[in-house]
Amino acid sequence: MRSIQAIVAIDENGAIGRQGGLLCHLPADMRHFKEVTMGHSIVMGRKTFESFPRRPLPGRQNIVITRNAGWQYPGVKVAHSLEDAVAAAQTDVVFIIGGAQIYEQSLPLVDVLHLTRIHARWASADVFFPALNMDEWQEVSREHHTSDHRNAYEFDFITLKRRAR
Ligand SMILES: NC(=O)c1ccc[n+]([C@@H]2O[C@H](COP(=O)([O-])OP(=O)(O)OC[C@H]3O[C@@H](n4cnc5c(N)ncnc54)[C@H](OP(=O)(O)O)[C@@H]3O)[C@@H](O)[C@H]2O)c1
Question: Domain segments of the chain: what residues?
Answer without folding.
Answer: 3-162
